[in-house]
Design a protein that fits this description.
The complex is a heterodimer. Chain A has one domain: P-loop containing nucleotide triphosphate hydrolases (Rossmann fold). Chain A is an alpha/beta fold. Chain A is globular and about 55 Å long. In chain A, helix 1 runs antiparallel to helix 6, helix 1 packs across helix 8 and helix 5 packs parallel to helix 7. Chain B folds into three domains: 152 residues, D-Maltodextrin-Binding Protein, domain 2, CATH 3.40.190.10; 93 residues, D-Maltodextrin-Binding Protein, domain 2; 205 residues, Orthogonal Bundle (MetI-like fold), CATH 1.10.3720. Chain B is built from 22 helices and ten strands. Chain B has a three-stranded antiparallel β-sheet with strand order 3-10-4, with helices on both faces. A three-stranded antiparallel β-sheet of chain B has the order 8-5-9. In chain B, strands 1-2 form a two-stranded parallel ribbon. In chain B, helix 2 links the parallel strand 1 and strand 2. Classes of the chains: A alpha/beta, B mainly alpha.
Chain lengths: 281, 510
């Protein structure tokens, strides 16, 4: 709890509050992201059937489903790494296009499974690359770097190492720092903890949730682990074969499943824990 | 970001500046007030000696003369003369009629002069010797048998004849000769020409074919039987020069004409022998002749072995440096373009691949009609030859970057050019450097062939060494060329270690 409180302190410092009227206008629209009729296929194989998705400002949404269900494709469509065959992505009221995607990405943070850190750059350079490119003030960059190291619990001396000299958990923390450097409104995470061993994964889950809560940012996360999804999500979006099967809180999905697949998916992953509970009882 | 490897794309700029400096020093001495007269010579001793005489005469007449030694075969000299790369070179009437103007009926000297005038060329007076095929025997053997002319051979059907393989096979060689003179000899063997000379010396052979000015004539004490029925075409030595030389530098043409009729076959043969058998420099032999016959006291520019070595080194470095720098500047962007679109990639890689399949010597020769002779065509050929390894490795280096890294750079909002400069090229550096290293080593070796088209470099002593069968001279070119290749290889190793700290290149742990 003490640790969490100190994180909170760090957070309030590193939050650069947006102008009041913009925030107000925003929350009236309440849509950070709106995907309309968006679809994508690869070599004739549909990866995502025409899909609508609404993501509210300040919420944490988790995209979940079995492998190949289209959850990663959905996330990559949002950040523009994949171009949709049809439909539009609207980010903060603006339809995304080749012209505005670069600016939009600067307001999004993106973290992937193995971090995607640039191996030829020291950790510090990885984190501040974009800020440097945009010629942000050096003093501001240094201050922001320090805030972020506090936020993700890394010590400053690691900043001079290369990514290959860090542990997996440390690399994910750096990747998060890089995503947060420009204080984006939207944070996109594609299986951010998927490659970590269970103990570190558990610890990072706790910390990440605290960070999200403190920052108040809109978060979209992809995972295939229902427990992790339930732990983070305000809203779960369950996909199967390129379609959204059901959206809602974990309680809604458990209580009133849209079809038998929803129940099966939840139970399939809950199984081992219940089995463990029975054994212990 | 301030680390060295991010500055990588700026590096080739320094190399280019250095290369330009080398080029400038390579070309200096060209600018001067006096009329510039360039002499060429073919890749055999007699041509080089005659070329050296023309060079010394032109210099004596006040021109700023230079001599492009042993530029190659007839075709190369002819093209070089037509394009104005050279102003004059020694040629033979038979070669002009039989090879160069082949297909035209040229009868007699006046017609030959007319045919040459069409090309803007003039033929100077004959020098005084006919370097044709002849039938040679040892002097005492000929005297013992009482032989003077080729027709005398008809009386001696049991003579042992040995000919060079080329002479034996050619229609206008032994077969034609035998018919023309109705020669009865049946004991005729084909063999390597050097062995035929030894056969004559040992008495195993009675006669062989030879060129009338061969150095070996004096050495083995041979005599040429007279071609009393005019079978062999005449190969009168003449000076071929551009018509405009008469206007630009009449005193040089006048100086050339002083050689008219001054060199007979015996004198030429003796000069060839001094070079080939005694190892005297061509320029010395030529100067001695001019002093004795024309009272021209030529000033020999004493060229020490070190000066020659330094000159070859400079030429070689210029060839390699310019062609390789240009190849880097072109091939890296081409490799980038190849990795950007599949269609472009296939096209670029296959064109570069095809260039590589052209034999290097052929590529040098292809460049002559486009760029003349000397440095420019050699550099162009070496440039084309150096492209493929760099294009391929740039392409492969970019393709091998793990996609999460490429996508992370894109997801940051970096524009394509910035991604290339900050992330992709630095990560492909190892592969690109390996490609450049391969190109550089190939380039250093291939550049030795540039001497064949008059571009100098370490190939020059190799070529001369082959002509004079002088292994020491061959090594003077081959050893520095090999050493340069090793230095280049080692140099790239150092650059690689400087530029790429091990931890920074571990793309596995991203």
């Amino acid at each position: 709890m003490v640790a969490l409180a100190s994180i909170g302190d760090g957070l309030s410092r590193c939050l650069t509050t947006p102008p009041v009227e913009a925030t107000a206008a925003f929350q009236q629209n309440a849509a950070m992201l709106h995907l309309r009729d968006i679809s994508k296929s690869y070599d004739g194989q549909p990866a995502l059937s025409p899909t609508d998705l609404h993501i509210a400002s300040g919420s944490t949404t988790v995209l979940i489903g079995p492998s190949g269900c289209g959850k990663s494709t959905l996330l990559r469509l949002i950040v523009g790494l994949v171009r949709p065959d049809s439909g539009t992505v609207t980010f903060r009221g603006e339809p995304m296009s080749a012209q505005n995607i670069l600016l939009a990405r600067q307001r999004m943070g993106y973290v992937i499974q193995e971090g995607g850190l640039f191996p030829h750059m020291r950790v510090r350079d990885n984190v501040i690359l974009m800020a440097r490119y945009l010629r942000r003030d050096t003093g501001w960059i240094e201050a922001r770097l320090e805030e972020l190291t506090d936020l993700v619990h890394l010590s400053m001396h690691l900043m001079d190492r290369y990514p290959s000299e860090l542990s997996g958990g440390q690399r994910q923390r750096v990747s998060l720092m890089r995503a947060l450097m420009l204080d984006p409104e939207l944070l996109l995470l594609d299986e951010p903890l998927g490659a970590l061993d269970p103990m570190i994964r558990y610890q990072l889950q706790q910390e990440l949730r605290a960070i999200f809560a403190g920052l108040g940012k809109t978060v979209v996360m992809v995972t295939h682990d229902i427990a992790e999804a339930a732990f983070f999500a305000d809203k779960l979006v369950l996909l199967r074969s390129g379609r959204i099967v059901q959206q809602g809180s974990i309680a809604e999905l458990a209580r009133s499943p849209a079809d038998s697949f929803v129940t099966e998916f939840i139970n399939a992953q809950r199984g081992p824990f219940e089995a463990l509970g029975e054994v212990l009882a | 970001m301030n680390s060295a490897h991010l500055a990588w794309p700026c590096r080739p700029g320094h190399a280019v500046v250095a290369v330009v400096l080398v080029l400038v020093s390579f070309c200096q001495g060209v600018a001067s007030g006096a009329e510039q007269v360039s002499i060429g010579s073919k890749s055999f001793t007699e041509s080089v000696v005659l070329g050296e005489m023309l060079h010394l005469l032109a210099a004596d007449a006040g021109a700023q003369a230079d001599h492009l030694r042993q530029m190659g075969g007839t075709r190369i000299l002819w093209e070089a003369l037509l394009s104005g790369e050279i102003d004059a070179y020694p040629e033979y009437t038979g070669t002009l009629i039989q090879e160069i103007l082949k297909g035209q009926v040229v009868d007699g000297k006046d017609e030959l002069r007319e045919a040459l005038a069409v090309h803007g060329l003039r033929m100077g007076p004959e020098l005084g010797f006919n370097n044709s095929y002849a039938i040679g025997m040892r002097r005492e053997r000929a005297a013992q048998l009482g032989l003077r002319d080729i027709s005398d051979l008809r009386e001696l059907p049991d003579l042992a004849l040995g000919f060079g393989n080329e002479f034996l096979d050619r229609a206008d060689g032994w077969r034609g000769l035998q018919q023309h003179y109705s020669l009865p000899q049946a004991d005729v063997r084909g063999m390597d020409h050097d062995l035929a000379y030894r056969g004559l010396a040992s008495g195993a052979l009675d006669a062989t074919d030879l060129y009338t000015t061969d150095a070996e004539i004096a050495f083995y004490g041979l005599v040429a039987l007279a071609d009393d029925r005019d079978y062999f075409p005449t190969y009168q030595a003449v000076i071929l020069y551009r018509a405009d030389l008469q206007d630009r530098s009449p005193e040089v043409v006048t100086a050339f004409s002083r050689l008219a009729g001054r060199i007979d076959a015996a004198a030429m043969s003796a000069m060839n022998a001094r070079v080939k058998l005694e190892g005297v420099a061509e320029s010395r032999v030529a100067a001695d002749f001019l002093a004795a016959e024309l009272d021209v006291q030529a000033q020999l520019v004493g060229r020490s072995a070190w000066a020659g070595f330094w000159r070859n080194t400079r030429e070689h470095l210029a060839l390699v440096g310019i062609s390789l720098s240009a190849a880097i500047l072109f091939a890296v962007p081409l490799g980038v373009a190849a990795s950007r679109s599949q269609a472009a990639g296939r096209l670029i890689l296959s064109v570069a691949g095809i260039l590589q399949t052209i034999p290097s010597l052929a590529l040098f020769v292809f460049m002559i009609p486009l760029l003349g002779i000397g440095g420019p065509p050699a550099i162009a050929a070496l440039f084309l030859y150096s492209l493929l390894p760099i294009v391929q490795n740039t392409h492969a280096g970019l393709e091998d970057i793990p996609s999460p890294i490429v996508e992370s750079a894109a997801a940051l909002g970096l524009p394509g050019r910035a991604r290339l400069r900050l992330v992709e090229l630095p990560l492909a550096t190892r592969s690109i450097l390996a490609g450049i290293k391969t190109s550089a080593v190939i380039n250093v070796g291939t550049a030795t062939l540039a001497a064949l088209i008059g571009a100098g470099g370490y190939g020059q002593p190799i070529l001369t060494g082959i002509r004079l069968a002088d292994t020491g001279l061959i090594l003077q070119g081959a050893v520095p060329a090999a050493a340069l290749a090793l230095i280049v290889q080692g140099g790239f190793g150092v650059i690689e270690r400087r530029l790429l700290p091990a931890a920074a290149m571990d793309t596995k742990a991203g």
